[in-house]
Amino acid sequence: MDKYGNYLFQAVYGVLRSTKDAEDVTQEALLKIYASLPQYRYQGFKTWLTRIAVNKAIDFKRSQDRKKEELTDDWEGHSPPEPLQSSPVETQVIRRERSTYVRERLDHLPENYRDVVVAFYIEEKSYQQIAEEQQVAIKTVESKLYRAKQYMRKVWKEEEWE
Questions:
Q1: Can you list the positions of beta strands (E) in 24-160?
Q2: Which CATH number applies to 88-161: 3.40.50.2300, 1.25.40.10, 2.30.130.110, 1.10.10.10?
Q3: Where is this region: Disordered (predicted)?
């Protein structure tokens, strides 16, 4: 353990990338190595130790992945709780406020982005229609929409939308 413990820890850490897990698995590997010493064939001791430790790490990682899958499978069967029902008036007010807020934000977009964003998202026009109206190539419309989205992500902060 004193001679190879740190070496085995490094090998296990390379697989798991977690200090805590690597410590636990290294300990398990050392116990497995000790129990397996009678089966050792006197060929490449360090390689044999490493192989046992890495296999333990791989097994551990697989078991962690299976646990995550089981948790996911358990949640997939459950439907989310029903949201609180809001009144139709409340829903309309929220929509109106959100729409007003979005329109105000759109007014602050650079004009070349605003035209494309409004045409595509608000007026629900196709790339082809926008390109024809603005007398540009379809790729230009795609590019402007992409740049507009990047601009909005950069300038508009996430917390303002919550």
A1: none
A2: 1.10.10.10
A3: 63-90
Q: Give domain 5-76's CATH number out of 1.10.10.10, 3.40.50.720, 3.30.2310.20, 1.10.1740.10.
A: 1.10.1740.10
Burial group, residue 8, by CB count within 10 angstroms (0-12, 13-18, 19+): buried
The span from the CA of 49 to the CA of 80, in Å, is: 48
pLDDT at 157: 60
Average pLDDT over residues 6-16: 92
What pLDDT score does 161 carry? 46
- Of 9-23, 112-126, 137-151, the range with the lowest mean pLDDT is 112-126
CA–CA separation, 50 and 84 (whole Å): 56
d(CA 37, CA 102): 70
Query: In the chain, what is the straight-line distance between the N-terminal and C-terminal CA atoms, in Å?
Result: 54
Backbone region of residue 14 per phi and psi (left: phi > 0; alpha: psi in -120 to 50; beta: other values): alpha
Q: Determine the Cα–Cα distance for residues 29 and 23; give it in Å rounded to an integer.
A: 10
